Amino acid sequence: MLTTQLQRAAEMFTTSVIATHEMDAFVEAKEVFRADPELQSMRKRLSQRSGELQAKQTTGALTQQEIDEVRFLQNTLNAHPLTVQFVQARQAIIARLGECNEAVSEEIGFDFAAAAAPQSCCG
Amino acid sequence: MMDKTEKQTETTIMNLGDVASKLGIAVVATAEYHAFNAAERRYRNDPQARELLGRFQEEQRTVQLMEQLGKAAAEDTQRLEGLKKEIDANETLAGHFDAQEKLVALLRELNEFISGQLNMDFAALTKPQRGCC
């Protein structure tokens, strides 16, 4: 159970993070990335073709041309300016959060994130 | 409880690093952190407990390796189980593990709170990256 003091410190921390330029840029880039009709169509097409090709792979009917087609779709999606903008904005906010984790960790004497992160397959 | 305007005024005069440091200081002030620190000190000052844990970890690595090679013998596993029982009965180690568990539970709760506010998992995004298993 979080103490009042801890909850207050956490609220101040999150309020400050939300007020950063990096968080603003990330939220905006994510919304644009999700809502853009061209990207929506590309993601839908990629997902559809990947599913079809996975099914073909199990039967051994997959051709090199089809593999190249999916790679092309993936590369086109990754190279789209709005995807690049979203990825860069995400990297920037993660870098800022990483600095925050370092500051918290310095006070407590061990890595906060390593101790507090949800368990994954990698521990 | 401060209202939103008060909080924003207070946070705008501090940079993000300072606010993060204050969060760390608030963690240090908790009962769970104090208990962990005390248990950690007790462990460091108890050579018998350190030696026992060291033996257990070494034995555990050996048994895991033997299992991977398909060569684990029943006596290896029994020896490991025996050491585990000794660890469970050791007050220093039991206290250390208990304090550690409670502090980690608090930190996870704190991370859940922060992540809920930020709409992204703070700790998962910033923890040291390791190769997957």
Detailed description of the structure:
The complex is a heterodimer of chains A (123) and B (133). With 123 residues, chain A is mostly helical. Chain A has one domain. Chain A is built from six helices and no strands. In chain A, helix 2 packs antiparallel against helix 5. Chain A is elongated, with a radius of gyration of 21 Å. The model of chain A has no long low-confidence stretch (mean pLDDT 93). Chain B has 133 residues and is an all-alpha fold. Chain B has seven helices and no strands. In chain B, helix 4 packs antiparallel against helix 5. Chain B is extended. The model of chain B has no long low-confidence stretch (mean pLDDT 88). Chains A and B meet through helix 1, helix 5 and helix 6 of A and helix 1, helix 2, helix 6 and helix 7 of B.
Put the structure in a nutshell:
Chain A has 123 residues and is an all-alpha fold. Helix content of chain A is 83%, strand content 0%. Chain A has one domain.
What's the layout of helices and strands?
The complex is a heterodimer of chains A (123) and B (133).
Chain A: H1 4-18, H2 21-35, H3 37-59, H4 64-79, H5 81-108, H6 112-116
Helix pairs in contact in A: 2-5, 3-4
Chain B: H1 4-12, H2 16-28, H3 31-44, H4 47-68, H5 74-89, H6 91-118, H7 122-126
Identify the notable features of this structure and list them briefly.
heterodimer, A: 123 residues, mainly alpha, 6 helices, 0% strand, B: 133 residues, 80% helix, extended
The quaternary organization reads as heterodimer
What proportion of the residues of chain A form beta strands (DSSP E)?
A: under 5%
Low-confidence regions of chain A: none
Residues in helix, % of chain A: over 70%
Give the biggest sheet of chain B.
none
